[in-house]
Amino acid sequence: MVNLGIDGLASGLDTTSIIANLMKIEARPQDLLKTQLTDTQAKAAAYRAVNTRLDAVRSAAEALTTAGLAAARSASSSSSTVTASASAAAATGATVRFDVVSLATAHTVVLGQDFTSTTAPLPSPSVPAFPIEVRSTDGTKVGRIALPANASLLDAVSAVNASSYGLNATIIQVEPGHYRLQVSAKETGAANAFTITQDDGSGSTQVALDDVAVVVQGGDAELDLGLGDGTRARSATNTFTDLVPGTSITVSKKESGVTVSVGTDNSAVTAKVKALVDAANGALSAIKVYSTSTAGTTKATLQGDSTLVRLSGELLSTISSAVGGGSASSIGLQLSKDGTISFDPAVFSATLAKDPATVARLVSGTAASTVGGVTTPAVTGIAGAFAALARAASDPSTGSLTMLASGRDTLADTLQDRIDALDIRLDARRAALTKQFTTLETALGTIKNQSAWLSSQIGQLYSPNKSS
Question: What sequence ranges are listed for the domain Flagellar hook-associated protein 2 N-terminal (predicted)?
Answer without folding.
Answer: 11-107
